[in-house]
Amino acid sequence: MSSLRALRLVVAAAAGAATMAGELAAVRLLAPWFGASTVVWTNVIGVVLLALSLGYLWGARLARGERPRRVLARLFLFGGAWYAAAPYLARACAAWFLPEGLALDAAEGVVQWGSLASACVLFLAPLLALGAAAPLVVEWWTREESVHAGTAGGIVLCASTIGSLIGTFGATHWMVPSFGVVATFAGAGLALVACGVATAWTEGRLAAMLALLLPAYALAAPASTGPRPKSGERVLAEVDSTLQRVRVVERQTDGWRFLQVNEAFDSFQSAWRPDPGLLGAGYYYDLFALPLLLAPRDTRFRVGFVGLGAGTAWRVMQGMRPAGVELRGEGAEIDPVVVDLAHRYMDLPTDDAELRVHAGLDGRVFLRHVGGAFDLLVVDAYQNQVEIPPHLATREFWSLCRAKLVDGGWVMANVGSFGLGDPLLAAIARAMAAGLQEEVCLWRVPFSRNAIIVARRAAPVPDPSLVSTGSYELDGRLAAIALPGMQRRVRPGEAEGDGRRDHGVLDDDRAPLEWLGQESLARAAAVLRGEVEP
Amino acid sequence: MLACASMIALAMAPVRQHAAAIERTREGRHAEAWDAASAETDPLLRAQARIWIAWSAGDLFGARRALQESRRAHPRDPLLLEWQLQLCLALRDAEGAREALDALGPVPAAELSRSAVDELEREDERASATAGLARLVSLGVFAGSLLTLVLLVRRPD
Which of B64, B65, B130 is opposite residue A98, by nearest beta carbon? Predict the structure, then answer.
């Protein structure tokens, strides 16, 4: 194979690889501000497709010129320089489209449009250039090799698609987790620039091209691209995992630490305080200690965690464990980086003596394969900041939970929601009642926008106002839950009762949690305005 | 004598229920407090007790709802207005907070919260402006791109 032919193949493959790596890394780049929800993915993919379709047509027009190779080199240099600069532009861009310190419940419109606008500003131009590359390479091939356009097109498409494959796997499994988002963009940018320089070399225009590069790469210095911590907080660690950006921040006034995942809003995934035990008003984790406090003495109490996070619920239980009760735990956390940071900064046990941690394991896979039955299952699994994974909310999942509970065992699930009428909460409660074949109780957590769904296998959930746990603080919160408007019961087979759109019982075939999440946020705005009952 | 005692007891009864509700709330006995509040015969005191109980129990939405109901009957009650101001600030409802602030007039409690209401309104405006800008940029880019696509398709040369 001639060196020119090889160069053309490499150039086509580089365009494909950079497109896919850019698309995947783009979501990761925007995630610290806008999350990585389906909405954000859709917006990024939409912008990529728009840019490519425009680029193809533009490239077709450019291919009619006298020197398509020179144009191609310029496009690669432009695209590469933009890619390398994108992480540095992202913070400024996000500041335009996302006000700092925005509350989660006010975020709906901003996430949707802000992520779309940011994707347009940051990625439309370089991807347009990459889209225009393909017709130019085809033209170059056709002119040099004197072959049919279809032959050249087929070869170039093949090389480009193989490049896309390499970019897809390389970005997700190697570049982002190993080197981070900034380095992924810099690497893709450098590859494009190298292709541009090589192409220009064949035209004898190297010096001019190199001069063009210098300003762009003067920018390339390692930096954090995520949102800054709030005033009074400092970042202890920040890591890009395969799934998300994870960081631990410490509040300087009291030493509390919070694990945040892609967080630009006023929220966190796990909390840690220097002493184990109850966290206080507004923290739903405290309610998970209830079954432990009601357990008979001189027994072993086994708790399972689906979505362990950094082990906040475990730490609450450790601090509240009554004398005479032996506490054992086993849990799954899908992101190993979260577990690693929890070991280092949030006192998650590193041995298996009391708590066995399955890092990198999906909650449902864990539950399917874990041996023995539990006295309590805590389900607290979230993805992309605000989304509950659909397969951890369906009737079949709750049925699996039932199979893993002892008689009288408890299952408690955390659902972020805005009142008992929240459509997401109601749908999950109905699926839970159907799967467990038990009545479930919805408890709003005082001073919080969370609710806990509680059920027991073959036993009733006690009236919270009649429970005495021995903890004055927890009893006070349970007494608050006993108020009208703070709790509700859902029986198996109960239909949606208030005339809202009925999505049926969530099951593995159909669980439209994205829709329900959108409905929940839209309803939250109305609740906050006092237009509908919480 | 008996009739007089009965009249005094009747007159005192609403106050006792309201006070009992407040006292039980302080003790953390929210369900009993709610029952006591429900037995209160004075509508304004009943409403105030319910708002207080719900708020103390961490049910801010419930407190807000009770407040809205009672304000319909007592739109100028200063205590309700002050609670609305504080509750709306807690729920980040700038409009409700501004309404209460304006209705309260220049009293010290309102003046203390004025800057918080101003800040909340500024945040709302900023959120609204950035969302508007994002919408404008997105729609502009998509419309411009589609127009370019159409032009390129129609006039390839």
Answer: B130
Write down which residue in B23, B48, B74 finishes a domain: B74
Choose the mutation target among B84, B130, B150, B154 for the interface with A, i.e. most A CBs under 10 Å. Answer: B130
- Contact map slice: A 41-100 vs B, CB within 8 A: 50-51, 53-54, 57-58, 60-61, 64, 96-99
Q: What is the nearest CA distance from B25 to chain A, expressed in angstroms?
A: 9
Per the CB < 8 A criterion, the answer to whether B41 and B17 are in contact is yes
- Per-residue model confidence (pLDDT) at position B156: 59
Contact A117 B135 (CB under 8 A): yes
To test the contact with chain B by mutation, choose from A528, A531, A532, A533 the residue with the greatest count of B C-beta atoms within 10 A, namely A528
Quick check: ipTM above 0.85?
no
Note whether residue A247 is domain-resident: no
In this structure, is residue A236 part of a structural domain?
no
Parent domain of A280: 276-528
- Give the residue numbers spanning the domain of B63: 1-74
Element (H, E) at A443: strand A440-444
Cα-trace Rg, chain B: 26
| Whether residue B80 is found in the same domain as residue B156 | yes
Low-confidence winner among A88-97, A102-111, A271-280, B66-75 (lowest mean pLDDT): A102-111
Strand, coil or helix: A336? helix
Residue A240 to residue A209: CA distance in whole angstroms: 33
Residue B6 pLDDT? 47
Are A317 and A288 within 8 A, CB to CB?
A: yes
Residue by residue, DSSP assigns B90-137 as HTT-HHHHHHHHHHH-S-HHHHHHHHHHHHHHHHHHHHHHHHHHHHHH
- Nearest chain A residue (CA) to B61: A534
By the CB < 8 Å criterion, does A529 face chain B? yes
Reported confidence tier of residue B10, pLDDT bands at 50, 70, 90: very low
| Pair (B6, B22) in one structural domain | yes
A319 and A392 housed in the same domain: yes
Q: Which of B74, B93, B121 is the last residue of a domain?
A: B74
Does the pLDDT value for residue A217 go beyond 60? no
| Pick from A315, A333, A339, A179: nearest CA to A248 | A339
Helix (H) or strand (E) run with residue A271 in it: strand A270-272
* B89 → chain A, closest CA residue: A528
Query: Residue A222: is its pLDDT beyond 60?
Result: no
Measure CB to CB from residue B61 to each of A116, A472, A527 and give the nearest one.
Answer: A527
In degrees, to the nearest 5, what angle opens at C-alpha A235 toward C-alphas A230 and A236? Answer: 155
